[in-house]
From TrEMBL:
Its cofactor is a divalent metal cation. This is Flavonoid 3',5'-methyltransferase-like. PROSITE patterns: SAM_OMT_I. Belongs to the class I-like SAM-binding methyltransferase superfamily. Cation-dependent O-methyltransferase family. Pfam families: Methyltransf_3. Signal peptide: none annotated. SUPFAM superfamilies: S-adenosyl-L-methionine-dependent methyltransferases (SSF53335). InterPro entries: Cation-dep_OMT (IPR050362), SAM-dependent_MTases_sf (IPR029063), SAM_O-MeTrfase (IPR002935). Keywords: Metal-binding, Methyltransferase, S-adenosyl-L-methionine, Transferase.
Length: 124
């Protein structure tokens, strides 16, 4: 059962509260061996956060990265993407997805729900 969770990138707190609602009475958020980390911050920092979260999450724990389809732009060629915000971060997300797919430290899956959610399970 998940007891220790962390969220990187809080705005309204919606996703944090959603996670909190699943915690048992003795669930904690202290530093240490986390069961679950949810990352929804600036996409340019995702690779940096990956190194950090792999230290924080325990072996067998899950790190979830939001927006890894980045409005579908990761499946488009760079020149097809015209909207500024999407264009600005597309290459970071493409690079992140490639890195995660080849990272032997995690087993990962990019779920095509919402704007894409990548689940990584730390293997060692
Ligand atoms: C898309 S919103 C997150 C929404 C969040 N899922 C919620 O329900 O509240 C992204 C948030 O991440 C924050 N953020 C971006 N980069 C960050 C960083 N390096 N460290 C901490 N927070 C960061 C932004 O300020 C913003 O509030």
């Amino acid at each position: 059962m998940t007891k220790k969770t962390l969220e990187i990138g809080v705005f309204t707190g919606y996703s944090l509260l959603t996670t909190a609602l699943t915690l048992p009475e003795d669930g904690k958020g202290e530093e240490g061996s986390f069961d679950f980390v949810f990352v929804d911050a600036y996409k340019s920092d995702y690779l940096k956060f990956h190194e950090l979260t792999l230290k924080l999450v325990k072996v067998g724990g899950i790190v979830a990265y939001d927006n890894t389809l980045w409005y579908g732009s990761v499946a488009q060629s760079e020149i097809e993407v015209v909207e500024d915000l999407i264009k600005r971060y597309r290459n970071f997300v493409v690079e992140f997805n490639s890195f995660i797919a080849a990272d032997p430290r995690v087993e990962s899956s990019l779920l095509s729900i919402g704007d894409g959610l990548t689940l990584c399970r730390r293997l060692y």
